[in-house]
Amino acid sequence: MNILLEKYIDLYNEMKKNDKNCIPLCAAETYISEFVKQPLNSEFEGKYYFFKNNKIEELKDLITLACNRLFHSKYANAESLSGINCFTVCVMSLLKSGQKVLLSTPEQGGHASMPVILDTLNIQYDSIPYNFDKYQIDYTSLNKMCATGNYSFIILCQSDLITVPDLNKIDLPSNMGIIYDATQTLGLICGKCIPNPLDYPNVILLGGTHKTLPAVACGLIMTNNDLYIEQLKSNITPNYLRDIQPNHMACLLLSLIEQIEYGVEYQHTTIALANMLAKKLEKYGFNIAKISDEVYTMTHQIFLLMTKKETDFFYNQALDYNISLNQKHKKLFSEDGIRLGTQQIARYNWEEQDIDELAKLLFLIKHKGSLNEIKTIRKKLIDKKIPHFTYNEIIIE
User: Fold this and answer.
1) Which of 259, 292, 318 is the last residue of a domain?
2) Which of 45, 167, 289, 328 is 20 to 30 A from 302 via CA?
3) Per-residue CA distances from 50 to 42, 43, 122, 216 (Å)
C-alpha cells in the first residue's frame, strides 16, 4: 500500500477514535447528522456553477425558501465556504476603501480576524462602546456615535457571548446599516431562542453554518434590504466567487430542513443545558459569569472566570482527558478564563442527571480528583452520545 495512504488511514482512524471518546464542550464545533452529511458524497460535488443542467440555480432557490421559512429573509446566499469568507465578500460588496465602521473588537468578544480584514481593505473602524460588567453594548454611547454621521455600518461579530445585541436599543440612522455576524448564534435565531436581526431594517445577517446551526462548513448571507440585495447579487458571483461548493450548499439545505422540523426544541435545549450546567458548576465553587441573579447565559456559551494559572492548568487537564473546550485571555473574561459550549451535548439530549455527572467531572479535573472516578464518569457520558433531533431513516441515493 502507498505509504501516504497508510499514513492517512492511520490519521483518520486516530481522529475517529479521539472523536468517539471526546466530551464535546467546544463552543465552536457541533455534531453534524448523517442525514445532513449525505450530499458530501453526492453528484453535486465538483459541479460547475454556470452549467444549467447541474441544477445549482434550483438548489440555491431551495436554500432561499428554507431561509425565508427560518429567518424571514428575502435574499440568501450560501456560495461562500466559511463565516470569514462570507464576511469578507460581504464587506467587499458593500463597503469602499476609506469608509468607516463601528466594530465589535476582540477584547469584547469580537472575532479576531475582522480587524485584519478591515485593515487589509482600508476600511477604518472604531470600537463599539461596551459595558464589560454587564456583558452588553453601551447603547447610549453607541447611539451618540451613530448620530455623528461618520459611520456607514455597525459590524457586530462576537465569537464570545453570553448575551446578544439588542437591536431595539440602537437608534440607527436611515443611511446606516448593520452587518450582524451570527456565526455563533444562527441556530439560536432560527430556533426562536433569541431575536431575529432581520426583523429590523438595514440589516445583513451572515455567518458560518457549523456551530449552533449544525451544518457542514458553509457561509450564509441574508438580508431584506433591496439596495444591499442588488449590491450583493452584482458583486459576490462572479466578481469574488466562482468555484463554489454545491455539495456543501446541499448539506446546508438539509440542515435547514432539519431545523425546520427539530430546531425549536433542539435550540431551546441547548440554552437550558447551558444554564443548568453553569448553575451546577457554581455550586462546585466555579466562578461563573452571570447576566442576572438567575440567568448565566442567553446563548450556548458559559464563561468560567479563573486566574491565568488556573486557566492554563484546567485547559491542559481537559486536553489530557479529551474534553474539548476553549481557553480565553481577554478583558471579557476578566482577563482569563474558559469558554464552554453546550450545543453538541444538547444534540445528545442529555438530561439533568447527565449534567450532574458532567459538572462533577469538570470539578474533578480542576482539582486533580480520583483517576478511577474520572474514567467512570467519562465512560457514562460517552455511552450517552446518542444523536437526537434529526431524521434517522431518510437515505438519499
Assistant:
1) 259
2) 167
3) 18, 16, 32, 23
